[in-house]
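Standup notes, structure subgroup. Blocker cleared on the D-xylitol-5-phosphate input:
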Amino acid sequence: DRTIKIAPSILSADFANFGQEIQAIEAQGADWVHVDVMDGHFVPNLTFGPAMCKAIRPHIKTVMDVHLMIAPVDPYIEAFAEAGADVITAHVEAGPHIHRTLQAIRANGAKAGVALNPGTPASAVEYLLDMVDLICVMTVNPGFGGQKFIHSQVEKVKELSRMIGSRPIHIEIDGGIDPTTAPLMTDAGADVLVAGSAVFKGGSVETPEIYGQNIRAI
Ligand code: DX5
Ligand code: ZN
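Run returned:
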């Protein structure tokens, strides 16, 4: 399914209210819920782990899309799968054995995603195409919400789109997506748009219609 999907990142939500925030964005048209897991080692920020994912899972009616910015990854795959992740994405830069990691994700019953940092070429996934359901192109350096979109990644998405051909692989874009940058990426071939600050800005669980306006504007 290559229709455009908006995946709000709860990194920009109210951390004291994840359940209500998720219900609000889904009611306002979010297609997937993007969950950013950071370890303070692979990226310079810390967020949350499998226990939090498990706690929010009952509130998600769409797709729980878990983006692991952690190294090592393999010791935690089973826990995130058991927490109910539908998609588990690991970074190609997070260790020497991404192929094994992707096998393990599928073996645990989740869809397998591979993420590329802005400095990593598209060719890094060339020999992984039969192993993945999703390729995530980072359009900021991972670690924080609200950063500026890196334009050079448009070309990478075009290249990946050609490489993927007719294979059933999603191209997800993560970082700096707003109403200006989103069309560049959908034109280039992306179908899943992660957006944190652009979805949550100006809204709250008391004013969820602002989330709806923000989602429709993307
Ligand atoms: C960045 C995270 C993103 C982040 C995007 O490391 O992977 O998912 O939340 O936030 P915005 O949309 O604000 O750039
Ligand atoms: Zn992310």
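Discussed briefly. The chain has eight helices and eight strands.
Next: hand off to the docking folks.
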